[in-house]
């Protein structure tokens, strides 16, 4: 891999900004964990009080999984040497689109266009991910 040779002051600035980014992501991860557990408490409260509004419950469950996806993306960022995989961004876009369709089902034409966008995101994921990696990921999830 080619390395760009930078003057020492630029390396210091770059390292300082990287540390600031890391600290910000750790703080953001902590906040997301708090909101994740708060959403879990809301889901349990709905289950205990007998909330029968399916769209409300599914909306909360999908928000829970969005928090979970963001937290796992931050963990992956640190475990993959400060790199966000594009597939995670596609997962979040797909999940957010599905959540919006489930929760806001009053606009059929808008939901149709959003489903087209979700289809494009899925196609993008298939095009970006090599076939062998997709199969390996699927086998790992099944086991």
TrEMBL record:
Membrane topology summary: Multi-pass membrane protein
Q: Which UniProt keywords apply?
A: Cell membrane, Membrane, Transmembrane, Transmembrane helix
Q: Where is the protein situated, by its record's location annotation?
A: Cell inner membrane
Where it mainly occurs, coarsely classed, is: membrane
Q: Which domain of life is it from?
A: Bacteria
A biological process (GO) annotation for this entry? cellular response to phosphate starvation
Does the record's keyword annotation contain Transmembrane? Answer: yes
**Which residue windows are transmembrane per the record?**
20-45, 57-78, 85-103, 109-128
Q: Which GO terms describe its cellular component?
A: plasma membrane
Keyword Oxidoreductase (UniProt): no
Record's family? Answer: Belongs to the PsiE family.
Q: What is the protein named?
A: Protein PsiE
Organism this protein belongs to: Fictibacillus marinisediminis
């Amino acid at each position: 891999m080619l390395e760009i040779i930078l003057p020492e002051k630029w390396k210091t600035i770059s390292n300082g900004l990287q540390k600031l980014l890391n600290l910000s992501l750790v703080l953001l991860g902590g906040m997301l964990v708090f909101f994740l557990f708060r959403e879990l408490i809301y889901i349990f409260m709905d289950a205990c009080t007998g909330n029968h509004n399916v769209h409300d419950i599914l909306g909360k469950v999908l928000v829970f999984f969005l928090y979970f996806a963001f937290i796992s993306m931050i963990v992956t960022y640190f475990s993959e040497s400060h790199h966000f995989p594009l597939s995670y961004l596609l997962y979040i876009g797909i999940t957010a689109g599905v959540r919006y369709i489930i929760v806001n089902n009053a606009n059929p034409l808008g939901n149709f266009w959003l489903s087209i966008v979700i289809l494009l995101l899925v196609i993008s994921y298939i095009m970006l991910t090599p076939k062998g990696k997709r199969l390996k990921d699927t086998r790992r999830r099944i086991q």
